[in-house]
Amino acid sequence: MGGHMTTRRRWLLLIAALILALPACAGGTPGEEDSADGGGDSEGGGEISVAAVWTGGEQEAFEAVLDAFTEESGIETSYQSSDDLGTFLGTQIEGGSPPDVAMIPQPGLMRSLAEDGSLVELGDDAAGGLEENFAPVWQELGSVDDTLYGVYFKAASKSTWWYNTAVFEQAGVEPPESYDEMLETAETVNSSGTPFVSIGAADGWTLTDVFENIYLQTAGPEMYDQLSNHEIPWTDDSVVTALETMGEVFLEDANLAGGASGALEVAFVDSVTQTFTDPPAAATVYEGDFVAGVISGETKAVVGEDADFFDFPSISGESAVVGAGDVGVALTDSDEAQELLAFLATPEAAEVWAEIGGFISPNANLDSSVYPDEITQRIAEAVTAASDSGAFRFDMSDLQPAEFGATAGQGFWQHMQDFLRTGDIDATTKSLEKDATAAFGE
Q1: Cα(first)–Cα(last) distance of the chain, in Å?
Q2: Residue 157: CB partners within 8 Å, gap ≥ 6?
Q3: Residues 177 and 259 reside in one and the same domain
Q4: Residue of 419, 412, 275, 406 whose CA lies nearest to 8
Q5: 124 and 208: one domain?
Q6: Where are any strands of DSSP class E within 30-125?
Q7: What is the distance between the alpha carbons of residues 391 and 436, in angstroms, rounded to a whole number?
Q8: 39 pLDDT tier (thresholds 50, 70, 90)
């Protein structure tokens, strides 16, 4: 997972800049840090280096968090951004001067760094903050082989479905709550003259995100974990059921803007913009919370007025969220690094960025009223509710070897595109199983 940044990550970084609409700001260069005993209780003073992928507005927002940490602790920070964090960290580690703390967007990269001995276990203060402020699922995501290494600071939801409010009003429909209701809504919207959904299937990750939401609900969190780790085969009946359910919407050409063949030519950003143009190409567009940034930055539509979202419709009768996040880890054994991680585990740290916007926190004790708008509040509350119930799961693609889960033109992305193109469930599951077996080295 530490290789070159995927197309999806590049889009998400661009979208984050659109959400915040702030100017780019150059970062500092991380310096060397003498090793210390660690534990999270420094006496004040000192300096630590921090690395992350964030640039532009995201960087400025995170640096505001670091400034709040400095004000509280007296510890100065220097920030370095890299759009290929895995390669950057590998080079710094090999050279003997890793940053003290890194904010990592891929669980696979955290795992590989832990397994090669590059990470330092969380101290008592940070671990205590996690236990006090985070649901168990986030503690599990921050652990490798039952050892706690990471504090998840920033979260994202991929369980949002965005709609053009004018089209819904014209068709006389309300946002659906269940999958069955959505099928009925799609039929009504189609009859009104506008296709129900736009999907950027030229980017295969949009289709894997749909599948993951459906699989989490139809198979449940435990089987989701098993499939993520290839502990069950992709030919399992649970995969067949999820693909059949997905096909009820996405294999019906009348539902899709441009039909299946047209959708496969549409990139993610275009799938959003064509839903909020006049006339709109579709009534809805599926993707995560970052869609709001595209709407605001690339169309004239106003989020919360012309554009809104509903939660990914319930199939099982229970809510569930597929998402992502950035986890803070220590790469040097210093009290200052541990103190920063302990700070990042507090609601006070999360509140700094939450008030700025373009941010969702997995911290259960952050009051949702601090978010700057009602849309973000609703998304954050859904993430918190799913986390508390144990129904939040990390994007499956990011939990798997990159050559299977996160590479254009092959693996998971490619086979979901083939599924949309052909509708052949048997061929899709067999191809997925073949490539997963190779990627997991089995």
Answers
A1: 18
A2: 288, 289, 321, 322, 323, 360, 379, 382, 383
A3: yes
A4: 406
A5: no
A6: 47-52, 76-81, 101-104
A7: 24
A8: very low
Q: How many CB atoms lie within 10 A of CB 289?
A: 27
Q: Is residue 107 part of a domain?
A: yes
Mean pLDDT of 171-188: 98
Percent above pLDDT 70 for the chain: 90
Instruction: To the nearest 10°, report the CA torsion of 260, 174, 323, 408.
Output: 10
For residues 308 and 341, membership in a common domain is answered with no
Question: 307 has which bridge partners?
Answer: 164, 303
Q: Assign 393 to helix, strand or coil.
A: strand
From the list 439, 430, 423, the residue with the least C-alpha distance to 207 is 423
Q: Are 353 and 62 in contact, with CB atoms under 8 Å apart?
A: yes
Whether 394 is covered by a domain: the verdict is: no
Q: Which residues contact 278 (CB under 8 A, 6 or more apart)?
A: none
What does the pLDDT look like over 137-158, one tens digit per residue?
999 999 999 999 999 999 999 9
Q: Please state, in angstroms and as integers, the Cα–Cα distance from residue 34 to each residue in 50, 100, 257, 331, following that order.
A: 15, 10, 57, 12
CA distance 249 to 199: 11
* Residue 376, Cβ density class (10 Å: 0-12 exposed, 13-18 middle, ≥19 buried): buried
Going by DSSP bridges, is the β-strand pair 160-164/392-394 parallel, antiparallel, or unpaired? Answer: unpaired
Name the residue among 237, 299, 309 with its Cα closest to residue 272. Answer: 299
**Structurally, how many domains does the chain consist of?**
2
**Non-local CB neighbours of 7 within 8 Å, separated by 6+ positions:** 203, 205, 408
pTM of the predicted model, to two decimals?
A: 0.89
Tokens at residue 330, please? 């220590």
Mean of all residue pLDDT scores within the chain? 92
By residue range, what is the domain housing residue 198? 160-319+400-439
Task: Specify which residues 347 forms β-bridges with.
Answer: none
For strand 143-144 and strand 147-148, is the pairing parallel, antiparallel, or unpaired?
A: antiparallel
Burial class (CB in 10 A: 0-12, 13-18, 19+), 389: middle
The token duo for 79 is 């920030």
Cβ burial, residue 237 (10 Å; 0-12/13-18/19+): exposed
